[in-house]
Amino acid sequence: MNDPVRILERLTILAPLGIRFWDALSNSLIADGLRVTGYPSNNPARSVQAITNRSGTYVLQNLPGMRDIEDGAGDAEFWAHLPPKRPFVVEVVDSYRRFQPFLFAVDLPVQGLFALECAPGSPPHILGSPPHTGMPMVPLYSAPTRPVPGAMAVLRATLVVPEKPQNPLTDKPAAWAMVEAHVAGHPPVRGFADEEGRIGLIFPYPEPVDFADNSESPVSLVAGPPLTQQTWPVQLQAMYTLLSTVPPIPDICTTLMQSPAKLWLDSAQTQQLTEVTLKFGQELVVRSHDSRTGTPLSKLFITPAA
Question: Check: CATH 2.60.40 for 17-139?
Fold first, then answer.
């Protein structure tokens, strides 16, 4: 009879940070193409790139100054007597240019999967927030360079801040400004502009109007317009906080928590833009108009609400 197995030594390796990323447009976990790096908040030069495990989780290990933590047991006793956490910054950049880059601050180690504390500012019903799966995920936001899937609608704009009236040469990009679009029958879709103020919101088309009631009789129904002539109203809301210095990669919490802003239909900023019309099969490009000529401009003016 064989002797029972005796464990002479147990080796554990603890990962200080594990993150999962969620894309609401494709309704899927994103486990490829993201370059996730972490570094001490006071030393960006000592960055470490995350690896992806089989479950699609990005894992950061071998971080500077975290050797004792990574050699810890990871049991209840370990977490109950954890030494002071250390501040790190995590950067997320998509190599395929599908999603906007961002960064966030985090104190390590984190027990379990990382949850973005500022995410409650994006309600779960908003397109761009992960579903209630019981598993924390960090939402991703579409970049203006992202290819538009077939049978999807897209809203595009180039957001600028007017510096001086009637002098377009002084306008500057509204880097990292947020826009939220509301379409009947669908959750709102939210996204933020890139460093040049360009934004692209991709979302499903609303249900077509198949029938229109032409009288008081319930049986007197006539077919609605063909699909190629269908239109829908889209309500817009904007959030933007002026930045004294535009960072190359935005802090995601600072971006999500920007103050309300106004979009303007005209260059003189006398008519606020709150609704546009989506047409089936056409990109919805939202622009301001020249107040003097009525000519559409190549940009959309935005200003903080206050």
Answer: yes
**Rounded CA gap, 170 and 167, in Å?**
6
Q: Are strands 86-94 and 34-40 parallel, antiparallel or unpaired?
A: antiparallel
> Stretch 188-213: mean pLDDT, rounded?
87
**Cα(283)–Cα(276) distance, integer angstroms:** 12
Query: Which amino acid belongs to residue 7?
Result: I
**What CA–CA distances, in Å, run from 35 to 25, 51, 98?**
20, 9, 12
Percentage of residues in the chain having pLDDT higher than 70: 83
The CA-to-CA distance between both ends of the chain, in Å, stands at 82
**Would you mind telling me the total number of residues written for the chain in this entry?**
306
Mean pLDDT of the chain: 86
Phi, psi of 70 (to 5 degrees): -65, -25
Residue closest to 239 by CA, chosen among 278, 290, 199, 284: 199
pLDDT tens digits along 168-184: 556 899 999 999 999 98
Burial (CB count within 10 angstroms: exposed 0-12, middle 13-18, buried 19+), residue 209: middle
Residue 219 has pLDDT above 70, yes or no: no
Nearest to 302 by CA among 154, 122, 158, 145: 158
The predicted pLDDT at position 279 comes to 95
Side-chain-side CA neighbours of 31 within 13 Å: the count stands at 10
The token pair that represents 147 in the structure block: 């290819």
Paired strand residues for 104: 90
Where are the domain boundaries for CATH 2.60.40 in the chain?
17-139
